[in-house]
# Entry
Amino acid sequence: MIASVLTTNLAILVLAGFIGFVVISKVPNTLHTPLMSGTNAIHGIVLLGGLLLFGFADLGAFSKFLLVIAVAFGTINVVGGFLVTDRMLDMFKSRPKPKASEDDLAGDAKDGSETKPGSDGKAGS
Amino acid sequence: MSAPLATSFLQSADFIYVLYIVAFALFIQGLRGLSGPTTAVRGNRVAAVGMAIAVVATLLYPSEGNWGLIALGIVLGVVVGVPAARQVKMTAMPQMVALFNGVGGGAVAIISWVEFRSHGSSYGSHTLVRTFESGPFVEHAVVHTGALPTYVAIFSVFAAIVGSVSFWGSNIAFGKLQEILPGRPITLGAGQQIVNMVLLVLAVAAGVDLVAGAHSELLFIGMLIVAALLGNAVVLPIGGADMPVVISLLNAFTGLSAAATGMALNNPALIVAGMIVGASGSILTNLMATAMNRSIPSIVAGGFGGGGAVAGAQGAGEHQGTVRSTSAADAAIQLAYASRVVVVPGYGMAVAQAQHAVRELTKELEGRGVEVSYAIHPVAGRMPGHMNVLLAEADVPYDQLKEMDDANPDFQRTDVSLVIGANDVTNPAAKNTPSSPIYGMPILEVADSHSVIVIKRSMNPGFAGIENELYFDPKTSMLFGDAKSAVSEITAELAGL
# Structure
């Protein structure tokens, strides 16, 4: 007697939920942004769903078109998410690096001019 | 063993499954790494390796000659995603995360749609039913006749609705953060919640009809559109300051919808990864909501935006005390003779991109022997941990960043609190005024320090229109101006002292 696909998968689902709770509940406030963008990258795994569906025979042209978009979206989510998280975390790592901060400042000086006037209305919290 | 001999081991379901197990072990290990600043970089990379393995494993499934299209999709994604992630400024991070989250939700919705189409546009179809089968472990896409298991339809429909809500909700959040859309709540007023309810009921009703076997692609598209409207209707009324909660909530949504897709497609990697994200997103959302002393439903219902604006109108005439404004030179002197200074950053610092200027100022102060630390409110900025990221970018030492609970007891022995573009998170009304919309929200108690300097553009109240009593406190002085230039001026004055 073998458990059905549904119950097997439900077991996986429930256990994964608990693992998620346990692993994440220890993360300090400081790392909330990288954590969020890291988990954000992980749900880009829906990309796999797109890849799997390409395995269906005789998909119509429109279905294939949709799947290309889905795979592209998923890839943006995964690749962009991990890269952005990596960039953020790199900053937490590098403390005594005066050279790098000078570079950043030079880059930032240009950006500063774009600061939008009158946006103080949203300065709350 | 049911694996046919003709299938090479590398294409067997067991091998793919083993790779999936390795992949999600790496996800979990990676997330564990993210819980500490020293292990976080590695943790993220470990999770990325897990993802690469999961993708490769999935490519081992037969793909019916669609390699070119798969490659096209992946290349498109890389071409768009990599430059975006490389070039985005740290201050624009919240909208980037919102956007990445949105495309993830969009992918979920589209995949459900294609899945529905591939079943012959009906979950109850008796002809073209395709499932991935071979015991609990996946083998091949199988075409057979007979009805699809009901649970597959339920999970598909759930994924379609939640994915669509997440896609549109995230796009609206992006628009607000990018200031394409106004950050203020856009609401239909009292009817808003009724409209949301009606949309939700319509989407669910369409879903139920589809699960019951309705043979109509139009109905499915209609369901996606109603869910899209719902995503818009839910996020549009939410004010800018509630964004940390909304972004982590949408993140959790996309995770859950990915898990549902995994249930529908019988793919364990999707189930595990989606569910972990769903769980972690829920925790974060809850943390953010707790930090604002508000329930998640009340935020989603747009209570703060609507209610806050009304209260702001009422409260406008309440505190007509005098406001003392100061100059950069005076502020510099005040700071120079302090022995302990606490910097309280808020969204204003992010908008003005003032983090490097702030770092320069505090370096100057430290050079003069002033003890400097930063007090960070959990919901300061537009996403969880927003301030920490910006200050880390400016090379502020990790141990100078104090979380609210650690920072609050120290305000009493602080000479000067320097509030830079933070408003509601410092408002004593949260403690003293039961009628205030933010009453009960834990705040940074800057009013306890000996003196306060607030750098702010103007006396405009925050997004919710709530007056800040702090500004009328006799020990508070206001330095009006753009956060970046004001801070730089103070630094220049300090250097000249």
Summary: Strands of chain B lie at 129-133, 140-144, 340-345, 371-376, 401-403, 416-420, 451-456, 476-480. The first strand of chain B starts at residue 129 and ends at 133.
